[in-house]
Design brief:
The strands form three sheets. The chain has a six-stranded mixed β-sheet with strand order 6-7-5-8-9-10, sandwiched between helices. A four-stranded parallel β-sheet has the order 2-1-3-4, sandwiched between helices. A three-stranded antiparallel β-sheet has the order 11-13-12. It has helices at 24-41, 64-76, 90-100, 109-120, 124-138, 144-152, 171-198, 215-223, 265-270, 276-279, 295-308, 329-338, 353-367, 383-389, 410-420, and strands spanning 10-18, 43-52, 81-84, 105-108, 203-209, 240-246, 249-255, 283-289, 316-321, 342-344, 368-376, 391-397, 401-409. The protein starts with 9 loop residues before the first strand and ends with a helix. It has four domains: 10-118, GTPase HflX, N-terminal domain (Rossmann fold), CATH 3.40.50.11060; 119-185, no CATH class; 200-365, Rossmann fold; 368-420. It is elongated, with a radius of gyration of 25 Å. The protein contains 15 helices and 13 strands. By secondary structure, it is α/β, with parallel strands linked by helices. Helix content is 43%, strand content 21%.
Length: 422
């Protein structure tokens, strides 16, 4: 089966399909990303294969001849995994697995990402989201051959967890479990909405970005708190929120799950509630790795996901991170011109963080407004709403009214005045 690997990592062969109109360089970039995903999952990439086709083969995705050739190559390289860059249909997966035999596992990009998500999920919400996504992915793939192979194979793509415990049950039981998980997530989201309501009077900043762009390092550098940081794709899936004070102004900073190209739609849907912190934010920081040759693709991915989640109307600031890894100063100037409203930093090296702090502070003060209102005593029941949604700077009780000076977000104050009908 080939040479043994000292650290016992599984060896993987990557396969990418190039269709008409697709540039080979794009597929090469995606395979680079797939290799990082495989590494994060604990596999070592032995080699990669690309196949040009006029269309997808309905039976084996890349055609039986090429599939047979890939299996022979994987065996010669001592691989235990074949990973496809695209999502493979249940029928194609079954046929490919039959060709691969019992010594090789066939995974697609979605299955690999799900495996990573399962490994990195820590909170109840993230674990529930991953379990739901895994079951939705595996339900149409519950053929007798697939479950037989799952019982026999361990390692990447077959970790114990969602799906694994369902091998001996029928589809209806899995569908029931999917329904239960959706109800659990709805309950968790309701709790999140309640928590968010209690924080309405605070300015909220959300970090979004491509996975591994350094969002968690930015969070740790700005907040000074111990946030989990690791140089891996999807190092963390859980939203972290920290309260930060700048020159007398307070704001909440949240770190969200990283984005990635070709992130399966059901995963975006599953993590919609995790991204609620971004939906409730007053400012979005789009964190980009300034040293990455794929920065334009990463920016487009962020833009597309935010548009898909209907968050593209929220004010945003582009944060070009990792500038210490950019050797050509002229490149930074080009990037600054390419992306509007940018700041350049190195969160890891603590470089130019004051420029980011000033930009956040400017956004906070621009977004704030102070107004004076008088509440008649017969409307004193409205005071709870005012105190829960704004910052009360002063209060004076008179014989006829309660005179308040309040501060809040411009949009929130407008909404409040409409509710108060003052």
């Amino acid at each position: 089966m080939g040479p043994a690997v000292a650290d016992n990592k599984e060896r993987a062969l990557l396969i990418g399909l190039i269709l008409p109109g697709a540039a080979p360089s794009v597929t090469a970039d995606q395979l680079d990303e797939l290799a990082l995903l495989a590494d994060t999952a604990g596999a070592e990439v032995a080699d990669r294969v690309t196949q040009k086709r006029t269309g997808i083969d309905p039976a084996t995705f890349i055609g039986k001849g090429k599939a047979d050739e890939a299996v022979r190559q994987a065996v010669a390289l001592g691989c235990s995994l074949i990973i496809f860059n695209d999502e493979i249909s249940p029928t194609q997966m079954k046929n490919l697995q039959r060709l691969a035999g019992e010594d090789l596992k066939v995974l697609d990009r979605t299955g690999l990402i799900l495996d990573i998500f399962r490994k990195h999920a820590r909170t109840r919400e993230a674990r529930t989201q991953v379990e739901l996504a895994q079951l939705q992915y595996r339900l149409p793939r519950l053929t007798r051959m697939w479950t037989h192979l799952e019982r026999q194979m361990g390692g990447v793509g077959t970790r114990a967890g969602a799906g694994e415990s369902q091998i001996e049950v029928d589809r209806r039981l899995i569908q029931n479990q999917i329904s239960r998980l959706k109800k659990d997530l709805a309950g968790i989201e309701k709790q999140r909405i309640t928590q968010s309501h209690h924080r309405r009077d605070q300015f909220r900043v959300a970090l979004v970005g491509y996975t591994n762009a350094g969002k968690s390092t930015v969070m740790r550098s700005l907040s000074g708190s111990d946030v989990y940081v690791r140089d891996q794709l999807f190092a963390t899936l859980d939203t972290t929120v920290r309260k930060i004070e700048l020159e007398g102004e307070q704001f909440l900073l949240s770190d969200t799950v990283g984005f990635i190209r070709k992130l399966p739609h059901n995963l975006v849907a599953s993590f919609r509630s995790t991204l609620r912190e971004a939906a409730d934010s007053n400012l979005i920081l789009k964190v980009l790795d300034a040293s990455s040759p794929q920065i334009d693709v990463h920016y487009q991915t962020i833009t597309d996901v935010l548009r898909q989640l209907k968050l593209d109307s929220i004010p945003a600031l582009v944060v070009l991170n990792k500038i210490d890894l950019v050797s050509d100063p002229a490149l930074l100037d080009v990037l600054k011109q390419r992306f509007s409203t940018t700041v350049t930093i190195s969160a890891l090296r603590q470089l130019k963080l004051d420029s980011l702090r000033r930009a956040i502070l400017e956004a906070i003060r621009k977004n704030q407004e102070i107004i004076a209102i008088k509440i008649p005593h017969f409307k004193s029941g409205l005071l709870d709403l005012i105190y829960s949604t704004t910052k009360v700077l002063s209060r004076r009780d008179t014989d006829e009214t309660v005179d308040l000076e309040i501060q809040g977000n411009v949009a929130d104050l407008r909404s409040l005045m409409k509710k108060l009908q003052l």
